[in-house]
Specification:
- The chain has a single domain, classed as Orthogonal Bundle (Arc Repressor Mutant, subunit A).
- It is globular.
- The chain is mainly alpha-helical and 93 residues long.
- It has helices spanning 3-14, 23-29, 36-50, 69-78; strands spanning 21-22, 57-58, 83-84, 87-88.
- 20% of the residues are buried.
- The chain contains four helices and four strands; from the N terminus they run αβααβαββ.
- Strands 1-2 form a two-stranded parallel sheet. Strands 3-4 form a two-stranded antiparallel sheet.
Length: 93
């Protein structure tokens, strides 16, 4: 596993139930700003094997994963996250 992969996985493991972050936020927090797409690749290849909470990560507009949005929404809703029309509804600050 690369240093980048380890950093992303470490950040992902810090997320608590109900937390939702973007791929870009994950990349920045891991120390690799601008590597949002690479975060997506890591989650796609490691999430099931590593038992990582991949569902807590969405794209910059809050959109869920396109290949299984129903599963993604179900997992987020189970943690109290509001989802509508395959997007996370974020409270305005």
């Amino acid at each position: 596993m690369t240093e980048f992969e380890e950093a992303v996985i470490d950040v992902l493991r810090t997320l608590e139930p109900g937390d939702v972050v973007t791929y870009g936020e994950m990349a920045t927090e891991a120390g690799y700003p601008g590597a949002a797409r690479a975060v997506g690749r890591i989650l796609a290849t490691h999430s099931e094997v590593e038992d990582l909470p991949w569902w807590r990560v969405v794209n910059a507009s809050g959109r869920l994963i396109p290949h299984d949005p129903a599963r993604h929404a179900r997992l987020l809703r189970a943690e109290g996250v509001e989802v509508d029309n395959d997007r996370v509804v974020r409270p305005r600050s």
